[in-house]
Design a protein that fits this description.
By secondary structure, the protein is an alpha+beta fold. Helices cover 56% and strands 8% of the residues. The chain is elongated and about 105 Å long.
Length: 613
């Protein structure tokens, strides 16, 4: 299997066909090789008809309403993005955004090199057009300028290759990617990017080459071309594009930061900040009573519980489908012990919490969503008939609050959850699946100290392992959203690069302007203008393109942010204040750049400026 396949390379085992009807047999993914792709729709319908026959339905509309499941075949290379599998969480929008961001980087690099080339025009245009007067052709002059930039691009390309090689050797940098970025594995991509880099170098010189050789030599030698209307429009257009990109990325990063804060700080419905957890070995599972007794002696331990999984930190949990017809139910099931709900801080809204005596009889506690969804369920009643549920028709003893069972990629508000304590008979048949330990730290105590103390007790009681490491829920959440946080880091890196390039571009354009207005600045100062007034003159000059660019960028930034947020079923709103904050932030950087460059010219001796002119 390929490295990026969800099916790992290793040992493959064929189960006994007679076990196919076992409820605990989890091979529920069906792989079908079609003889002809157009037959896909017919095969999907055949699946539906067969399931209807197996479940006793004859009315297709009734089946769709009550069964509530659709049937579709998904090409293998689309599975990750389709979400049909429990572990599939890819989002094409994210890939598309990263691709667009990469193109933006190249585009901004093109504009930046264009800016640098344009900023050189004031120093070179007289010599270029003098050569025209002396007989040099326009085509030869233009080709020379283009080849100069191609040479600079080639040098930049070599440096870029060295940077990527250094990136590959840095563990911190490699955390930003999830695949193989070696040149050998991406030879075609590296070739395309190398050609693109050289093309950027060539294209960045085309406009300046045509621009600097398109004026009448006599006008150039008089020095009057620099502030022509055509030149102003060209510079404004270049500057406006860069401002738009910077504003879009600033808005996008703001939304990402809001979503990151939402993931960690929103209400999960349980005490995620006070709970530590770890998996237990088979030997430790035989000593649960002793472990609980020893841990509860510690002053910083409030309660101890055991369960099959940690809630809130994944998307894959055991699911049961029970009943039929009007009494069918679909739910997430969590096997646990009587102390688990209290340890996790889940609140009982109706009925009671689990008791130790439930270990002998078995019991259910359902979340509020499940009670509201299946109206025939009531506290104190059996959850199902003996014939349908076998040994699991226990009483419903309580109802807990709704909570975030899965990650925010899923809509947790519609999840039906059943916490289940097994009786001895079911425990013997199913085995002890509560092999995760959860410890709630008492309020006011140091969690780091508690972590060390709990680990010490576990390592003492379980000599077979001896290296227990308790985990914080925050760390588990970090691992749950590793793809999302990697994507956020990537976009932040793109944004930093784009903003730096934009600043350099603005600096180049400001240098271009100040070089041609040096005489004007000198005269203004001689007539009594202060340095501050001259600096404000240039700063105000950039206010209009900043405002216009923001008006264009704001809807685009909103759309991109909304597209990214769609990958989460639960997400933060796009706050209105992110837009003015982005405007102020980017504008402040631009204005400071303009001030820094214009200050240098404004503080020069005006006599020198007028004399050199």
């Amino acid at each position: 299997m390929p490295d990026n396949c969800s099916i790992g390379n290793g040992l493959y085992m064929c189960e006994n066909p007679k076990d196919a009807g076992d409820a605990s047999e989890w091979s529920f993914n069906i792989f079908v090789r079609l003889d002809d792709p157009p037959n896909k729709a017919a095969v999907e319908r055949a699946f539906k008809k067969e399931v209807m026959r197996q479940t006793g339905y004859t009315d297709e509309k009734k089946f769709e309403k009550e069964y509530g499941q659709s049937f579709r075949l998904t090409p293998v290379d689309d599975i990750y993005f389709s979400g049909v599998g429990l572990g599939d969480k890819g989002n094409r929008n994210l890939v598309n955004v990263l691709t667009v961001a990469s193109v933006f980087i190249l585009f901004i690099a093109l504009l930046n090199l264009l800016n640098f080339t344009l900023s050189e025009v004031p120093m070179r245009i007289r010599s270029i057009n003098t050569r025209r007067v002396m007989g040099a052709s326009q085509s030869s002059l233009r080709l020379q300028m283009i080849m100069e930039n191609v040479g600079f691009a080639f040098i930049g390309l070599l440096i870029a290759f060295l940077i990527v090689m250094g990136f590959q050797r840095s563990e911190t940098c490699m955390n930003l990617v999830s695949g193989d970025i070696s040149f050998g594995a991406n030879a075609m991509l590296a070739t395309v990017m190398a050609v693109a880099a050289l093309a950027v170098g060539a294209l960045s010189a085309v406009v300046p080459a045509w621009y600097s050789t398109s004026f009448t030599p006599a006008m150039v030698l008089k020095g009057s071309f620099g502030l022509s209307p055509r030149g102003r429009k060209l510079r404004m257009a270049i500057m406006g594009v860069q401002f738009c990109v910077a504003f879009v990325l600033a808005i996008y990063i703001g939304v990402m930061a809001s979503q990151s804060n939402y993931i960690f700080n929103s209400d999960y419905g349980f005490a995620k900040n006070e709970v530590l957890f770890t998996g237990l070995t088979a030997e430790a599972c035989q000593k649960k009573t002793a472990i609980r007794a020893e841990l509860q002696k510690l002053p910083y331990v409030e309660s101890v519980g055991y369960a099959q999984d940690a809630i809130g930190v994944g998307d894959q949990y055991m699911g049961w489908f029970r009943g039929n017809g009007d009494k069918s139910m679909n739910m997430q099931v969590m096997l646990c012990d009587p102390g688990y709900l209290h340890t996790m801080g889940l609140k009982i809204e109706e009925g009671r919490d689990f008791k130790e005596s439930d270990n002998q009889t078995g019991a259910y506690i359902l979340n509020r969503t499940m009670m509201d969804k299946y109206k025939w369920l009531h506290v104190g009643d059996s959850i199902g008939s003996r014939s349908e549920w076998g040994d699991h028709n226990y009483l419903i003893v309580g109802v807990c609050n709704n909570f975030r069972m899965k990650s925010v990629r899923n809509d947790n508000s519609i999840l039906s959850v059943a916490f289940l304590v097994l009786d001895p008979l079911a425990m013997n048949s199913m085995g002890d699946r509560c092999y995760n330990l959860f410890v709630r730290v008492a309020e006011g105590h140091d969690k780091i100290e508690a972590k060390r103390g709990i680990e010490k007790v576990l390592n003492r009681l379980d000599a077979s392992f001896g290296d227990y490491k308790m985990k914080f829920f925050d760390d588990a959440l970090q691992r749950t959203y590793v793809d999302e946080f990697r994507f956020i880091s990537q976009v932040k890196l793109f944004a930093i690069i784009c903003i730096i390039i934009t600043i350099i571009g603005v600096f180049s354009l400001t240098m271009f302007e100040t070089e041609y207005r040096r005489k004007e600045i000198g005269i203004r100062k001689v007539m009594g203008s202060s340095v501050g007034a001259v600096v404000r003159l240039f700063a105000v000059h950039y206010s209009v393109p900043l405002v216009v660019s923001f008006v264009i960028a704001a809807p685009l930034g909103y759309w991109l942010s909304r597209q990214w947020l769609q990958s989460f079923a639960e997400h933060t709103p796009i706050y209105w204040w992110l837009f003015p904050l982005s405007f102020v932030g980017v504008s402040a950087v631009v204005v400071l750049t303009v001030v820094a460059q214009s200050w240098r010219v404004a503080t020069e001796n005006p006599v020198e400026s007028i004399k050199t002119e």
